[in-house]
Amino acid sequence: MEEVKQATRLKIERVSRGLKLADIAQLVGVTSATVSNWEKGETYPDIDKAIELSRYYDVPIKELFSDLFLQ
C-alpha cells in the first residue's frame, strides 16, 4: 500500500466508519478541534491517545502515524 500521510490516514479511518469529529473526540477525551488538528497534521496526539486511536481503528500505530517512523 502506498504510504498515506498521518493526517490523511486519520481522516480516512474516521470518515470510512461514518464518524464525526465529535465522535472521535468523545472516544479519546479531547475536543473536536483537537481531532481536527490531528487530521490536518498540525499537531499529534499524546502516545496514550495515539494508542487508543490505533486500537479503535484496528490499524497498527506504525501505519496510522507512518510519518513519525523511519522507513
Shape: globular
Element order: H for helix, E for strand: HHHHH
The secondary structure category is mainly alpha
Arithmetic mean pLDDT: 88
| Estimated radius of gyration | 11 Å
Name the beta content range: under 5%
Report low-confidence residues grouped into runs of 5 or more. Answer: none
Spatial gap, N to C terminus: 14 Å
Percent helix: 55-70%
Largest sheet: none
Count of separate DSSP helical elements: 5
Number of strands: 0
Write up what this structure looks like.
- The chain has five helices and no strands.
- The protein has 71 residues and is mainly α.
- The mean pLDDT is 88.
- The chain is globular, with a radius of gyration of 11 Å.
Summarize the structure.
This protein is mainly alpha-helical and 71 residues long.
Please supply descriptive tags for the structure shown above:
mainly alpha, 71 residues, globular
Task: Note the topology.
Layout: H1 6-16, H2 21-28, H3 32-39, H4 47-57, H5 61-64
